Amino acid sequence: MFPALETELKQETLPDPYEDFMYRHLRYYGYFKGPTCLSSTVRRQIEAVSRGSLLLSSPLLKSRQLLHNDFGEVNPRLREPRDLFAFLPSSGPLQAPRWPIECEVIKENIHHIEWIPPQPEYFYQPTGNEKVPEIVGEEEGTVVYQLDSVPTEGSYFTSSRVGGKRGIIKDLAVTLQGPEDNALLFESRFESGNLQKAVRVDTYEYELTLRTDLYTNKYTQWFYFRVQNTRKDATYRFTIVNLLKPKSLYTLGMKPLMYSQLDADTHNIGWRREGSEIKYCKSSTGDGQQPFYCLTWTIQFPHDQDTCFFAHFYPYTYTDLQCYLLSVANNPVQAQFCKLRTLCRSLAGNIVYLLTITNPSRTPQEAAAKKAVVLSARVHPGESNGSWIMKGFLDFILSDSPDAQLLRNIFVFKVVPMLNPDGVIVGNSRCSLAGRDLNRHYKTILKDSFPCIWYTRNMIKRLLEEREVLLYCDFHGHSRKNNIFLYGCNNNDRKYWLHERVFPLMLSKNAPDKFSFHSCNFKVQRCKEGTGRVVMWRMGILNSYTMESTFGGSTLGNKRDTHFTTEDLKSLGHQVCDTLLDFCDPDRAKFMQCLEELKELLQQEIHKKFNELGQDMELEGNWSDISLSDIESSTSGSDSSLSDGLPAHLLNIAREERAGFASTLQKPHAFSRNSKNTSSSMVRNEKPRLNEREKPGFTASCSAKRSTNRSQEPARDMKPSWSRNRYPVAKRGRATLTVYPSLHVYTYP
């Protein structure tokens, strides 16, 4: 079958060092039994292959590692060892989520259907007669649901296991006394669930307490829980009593989400906005250190004896992501240009996935010339809107659309779809199991405490050494502003002045009913130095953004005063792809037009600022020399938080060491008279800083031209506010894609 190979094997040669290495490697992973130096053995077995034997009867090998060609013949080379990287199995169950050992988890699998409401879901319009609830509490009410043990501040994550806490899962809901008992049965011990306590204060009125992020005493925003034993004709009131933010979109008409299991099963109806008498106000209770705020609403359930769910936003769980990635891994077409790898494992041992998406290149030079785009989501677990935008992006970039194929030809996409799987699994709002906001620790050197962030930054650092990264974007959610917008970083290099604002302006033109350029902000504040966008910008990525997507809806265009659906968010993911093509169009007309618009907008802002200060200034010659940071407001209105310092477990160790040190000081020592001098000579530990690199040259044009076939472009509710044919460009034709041998450059750690 392989005459040249047979001739070569008959000659006496020294063992191939690579061959020896591969057999050592396979033996280490359990695929090979036998000595490492097997030149004669290997020769005999490859000769057996040429005679038709498939090696499978050999006692030395227990692996099916030989590749077959299209004719079913054996190709004598080893396939890539499967256990080098942990990725989803092609068959069988998914890897079950790992929970902290303190968490009880019910055995039921919670699944929701996707559904698009046939009519727009408008904001709630306050009547002025909304009731301000008087918090009763468990002293006068009846506790009908309460989590037994919730790790809060002072405790820290130690270990995890599939299924969480060992032992029998207790039934925390009240026991019904008979068919006439109309008490609701609450549950939240499922993936991404969050509800700590429910108190029944009247027949159809309940006060709810949310669980803070694990190992902290703060961050209450995300809620997601189940109720059973509903009554159709009754009006129920729910009041969440321990929210921490003084401002909320619920004051602007946002409604909670409800899901009826009976409606899903019988009418294929999914999540929908429901609720009346909605009010968000300061609570009469508090913990003595910070005030609480409460959210109250009334609801009428659609059916008797139904199972219903309530949520702050459309849930998207770690299992949802795994199911999606499994479908990609099992798609033979998508597997040619999408490589799924493990970036790292989280504190609890859950996989953080990394996708590399690019079409195979014809030559190594062509592969090396591609620029990179890095996208990530769910660093804040309660911001599930980021996952829906990410899903829309992946749906489009993995499709057979000509524009998607063009993007894969000119870019290498590095995608981390869920940066904080632990937080998503346990239903946190903001933190990881370290009890800290990961989006304040991108400069960290604590790999073991913040593995997801450390490995992401390391992956991008390696990527920058290999190729130019054109754009970085981290998808988030926002609880106080409507619409979708970006936070970026002002560029101080006059050569690229205002260039970081071009992509957001283009996106606002492509999604005029969802994206607000006027809500964008490009100021870099000191308190945001640890965020992903600032760290990546300082590493040399000019276009480094945080995308903020509202939990509410739009105030723009024909979507004005309506809630966003999952389809709206997914369509924005499509439009991110569309804007990338506009941004890199070889015809620079659109890019230059946006720069001119930005200069005009900036002039208007400068004049406005001087008018507010009561000053007049001639800006014809030197207006562009004014610092942009001086005229731009801060991003303090964002959902950001300050860094909380060390992770919870290291903070506990520090406390113990301080306590031990204090007790030591109480004892008399011979050198006590010198202690003052000793303490004053202690060296202060300074935080490590990343070396700032000179920003690479920015070139927006690419060699490939964009397809004019718009038949498979993203569906939009509105046309872009600029004309696609505004510029006298050459006809954008595109040849049929040729399938080339796969060439992938792996840049994972």
UniProtKB/TrEMBL annotation:
Ranges of compositional bias, category Polar residues: 672-683, 700-712
Q: Active site located where?
A: E548 (proton donor/acceptor)
Residues forming the Peptidase M14 domain are: 314-584
Record localization: Cytoplasm, Cytoskeleton, Cilium basal body; Cytoplasm, Cytoskeleton, Microtubule organizing center, Centrosome, Centriole; Cytoplasm, Cytosol
Quick check: keyword Hydrolase in the entry? yes
Where is it mainly found? cytoplasm
- Keyword annotations of the record: Carboxypeptidase, Cell projection, Cytoplasm, Cytoskeleton, Hydrolase, Metal-binding, Metalloprotease, Protease, Zinc
Which cofactors? Answer: Zn(2+)
Which reaction does this chain catalyze?
(L-glutamyl)(n+1)-gamma-L-glutamyl-L-glutamyl-[protein] + H2O = (L-glutamyl)(n)-gamma-L-glutamyl-L-glutamyl-[protein] + L-glutamate
Q: Which GO terms describe its molecular function?
A: carboxypeptidase activity
Where is region (Disordered) located? 663-727
Q: Which residues form a coiled coil?
A: none
Query: What Gene3D superfamilies does the database record attribute to this sequence?
Result: 2.60.40.3120, Zn peptidases
Return the Basic and acidic residues bias intervals.
684-696
Does this UniProt record's set of keywords contain Acetylation?
A: no
Its family?
A: Belongs to the peptidase M14 family.
Recorded protein name is Cytosolic carboxypeptidase 2
Q: Which organism is it from?
A: Equus przewalskii (Przewalski's horse)
Gene from which this protein is expressed:
AGBL2
